[in-house]
Specification:
Chains A, B: This is MarR family transcriptional regulator. The structure is a homodimer of 147-residue chains. The first copy, chain A, has 147 residues and is mostly helical. Chain A is built from six helices and three strands; from the N terminus they run ααβααββαα. The two termini of chain A are 28 Å apart. The structure holds a DNA duplex (30 and 30 nucleotides).
DNA sequence: TGCAATTACTTAGATGGCTAAGTATAAGAG
DNA sequence: CTCTTATACTTAGCCATCTAAGTAATTGCA
């Protein structure tokens, strides 16, 4: 197989596997009414030591601000969080999970952890570590603004 | 690092790297007015030995039929393809690239190939081969309807 | 042969991503 | 102190994906 063909296969496998992962996890989370993106938002909010701003959340998730706005709108409608205007800077909204949001996070966290374990347990730990490292390095290369 | 943490890091790296790849390639293709998904559709259509049906294209791309419908609507509006009702089965629309579509494919193919080479050339071929294999295997596991 | 089931495509409406442009507020330069 | 600039969020509008439900045409069984 030519190097060119291999590079094409890799690009396709990266794309398809990421989608298959998201899709399979979304199906698993469907009963809880949350998709992977929503869950990730809630996870970062739950783990933060203090209420985050929307911009901080956008950085954590590596998405743009309007994406966060829409996501929070949905989660707020679902009663899982609320926004509070910062006391010292009226431009800033701090995002807080509601008790219901905290509860949902606990359940979803377990489901996601089980899912990862179930899908990855067959893989050798060293292989997984190596692949993770290569992907992280590739990600940095891709985000390099030079290209 | 615990195995659990490693699995979490892998899941995140898979998701983020796939998005970074798509994003970087989309930026590169923007001058040509095509996103990665559009380009992939055109590539399959260009390489097919005979005009494909929309269902066949959906299978190639591993997406659902409505996704293909929307994609083809856009590409048709852009003048890159047309649909023709099959002579023997009036339910079927065969998709044909226009001369302009064929031209665009030739350009985009070169850009995508250069992009892949540029981003992956630093990686050892054997490592790339191994990762591709693991991702493909994982994808099959994820698509397994059992879970 | 005729109607039920299947198949191919479309429409409707949701999620999740983007860019570009708008609004409100704070910070800083002069 | 004022006016420009920068920051935080929102809105508007697009692309890509999904599921569910609808339409048109064919297949196939009784």
């Amino acid at each position: 197989m030519s190097e060119e063909q291999l590079q094409q296969d890799f690009a396709l496998a990266l794309h398809d596997t990421a989608r298959a992962w998201r899709h399979a996890l979304d199906r698993r989370l469907k009963g809880l009414g949350l998709s992977q993106a929503s869950w990730l938002s809630i996870a970062y909010l739950a783990k933060a030591p203090a209420p985050m701003t929307q911009t901080e959340l956008a950085h954590c998730l590596s998405v743009e601000q309007p994406t966060v706005v829409a996501m929070l709108d949905r989660l707020q409608r679902a009663g899982l969080l609320r926004r509070e205007i910062d006391a010292h800077d009226r431009r800033i909204r701090r995002v807080l999970l509601t008790p219901e949001g905290i509860e949902v996070y606990a359940e979803v966290r377990r489901v996601a952890m089980d899912f990862r374990h179930e899908k990855l347990k067959e893989l050798d730990v060293e292989v997984l570590r190596q692949i993770t490292g290569v992907l992280q390095q590739l990600q940095r290369t891709l985000e390099d603004p030079i290209p």
